[in-house]
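Good day; I would like, with your permission, to put a structural problem before you. A protein sequence and the structure tokens that stand for its backbone fold form the material at issue. The record follows directly beneath this note:
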Amino acid sequence: MSDKNRKIYVRELKDPVVFVAMGLGGGLSPKAPGTAGTLLTVPLVYFLQQQTFLVYVLVTLFVLVTGSWVCGYAAKKLKVHDHSGIVYDEVAGFLITMMFVPAGWYWMLAGFTLFRFFDAAKPWPISWFDKNIHGGFGIMLDDVIAGVISLSCLLLIEYFMF
């Protein structure tokens, strides 16, 4: 991202919805903004794992329900569909990844690694949804699917190893 574009996007952060969509500014990371957005979600996941499961689910549902609008709004405001700095979708995906997983740093590390792999590599069916579903819903959907696949892998690991 050029310095000129970065300045434009920093200016757009004054809009509270764009600020949230860009991970409180973390999405402007010059390297791997999706990874930065996921890293910023780690403390939220840690906090939610200390709460009741209902609280975890309610926060995740809130992110999912608001995600299409937040991401779509930010994409229009930034004039770029699925701008790499929009990382609210990574928040949703990582919350899903860690939803039914036991608390612990090794689970967090495994979940982070799996989610980043599936989100970045976009194997089928993630790639199909990424290419064919557009708008705010499309921005969210590929990360949600990456989260579900990552969670499934973690649950399989837990089942077969523990």
In short: The helical segments are 3-12, 16-21, 33-49, 53-78, 88-97, 105-121, 126-132, 135-161. The chain is about 75% helix and 0% strand. Residues 3-161 form one domain.
